[in-house]
Amino acid sequence: PPGPQSTTPGPGPQGQVVQTPQGPAVDTGGTSGYRQLGGPGNVGGIMVPNGNGTSTIIRPDGSVQTVPTPR
To answer: Which end of the chain has fewer surrounding CB within 10 Å, N or C?
Structure first.
């Protein structure tokens, strides 16, 4: 049987542009628990919704940022 479903809304749908301090990144897919971001340079990463209106972005270089969750 499938596991429990998260009630925390995840960041927006695939293809959505997410504004980050490094510039715009594109949501390239994921689940309600994480979204993968793509973009030039160090713009990409993994975005994890925190459930409080913010999301944490973990970048390829290991840096971490908190940004408003896209709607």
So the answer is: N
Separation of alpha carbons 41 and 56, rounded Å: 18
User: From CA 11, how far away is CA 9, in angstroms rounded?
Assistant: 7
| 60: helix, strand or coil | coil
Q: Using one digit for the tens of pLDDT, what is the confidence trace for 20-62?
A: 888 899 999 999 899 999 988 767 899 999 999 999 999 988 9
Closest CA to 67 of 32, 23, 33: 23
Q: What is the pTM of this model?
A: 0.74
Structure tokens at 17: 């542009």
Residue position matching structure tokens 């969750």: 69
Residue 16 amino acid letter:
Q
